Amino acid sequence: MSRMQYRLGGMLFSVLGGMLASVIFKRVWKLAAGEDEAPESTDARRGWSEVLVAATLQGAIFGLVKATVDRAAAHGAAKVTGSWPGEEDQQPGKDA
User: Fold this and answer.
1) What DSSP state is assigned to residue 92?
2) Reported pTM
3) What's CA 55's distance to the chain center, in Å?
4) Angle between the 3-33 and 48-81 helix axes, to the nearest 10 degrees?
5) What is the pLDDT of residues 48-90, one digit of tens each?
6) Which residue, 17, 24, 29, is CA-closest to 65?
7) I want to staple 90 with a disulfide (CB 3.0 to 4.6 A). Which of 41, 47, 70, 84 is the partner?
């Protein structure tokens, strides 16, 4: 697998991961706040704490999904090629 193929696949998985993270965040917010939509940062009717909690939760979910997708893509590429993507001397960790 060439580096270019890995990067193209990574872009596709990043988009899909972003969509998945958005769906997860909407469900978590609905469970946590009982509302269908999270507050926008510019919504004058919402307080600082509500806006910041929503942003923190959204960031945590997006970060978790991104790390999961990136790690799974690297692990898959390593299975296909026999080497970890990136630096040639790297090998998967113990928990890979």
Assistant:
1) -
2) 0.80
3) 15
4) 150
5) 999 999 999 999 999 999 999 999 988 888 888 888 887 655 5
6) 17
7) 84
Total count of domains within the chain? 1
Who's near 76: CB < 8 A, 6+ residues apart?
none
- Domain of residue 72 covers 3-81
Sequence letter at residue 35: E
Distance CA 35, CA 28 (A): 10
Residues with Cβ within 8 Å of 69's Cβ and at least 6 positions away in sequence, in order, are 13, 14, 16, 17, 20
Is residue 88 a part of any domain in this protein? no
> Would you say residue 21 lies in a domain?
yes
Give the other-Cβ count within 10 Å of 38's Cβ.
Answer: 22
Find the length of the chain. Answer: 96
User: Which pair of tokens denotes residue 90?
Assistant: 């790297």
Scanning the structure block, which residue is given the tokens 């509500």? 50
Give Cβ neighbours of residue 91 (< 8 Å, ≥ 6 apart).
Answer: 83, 84
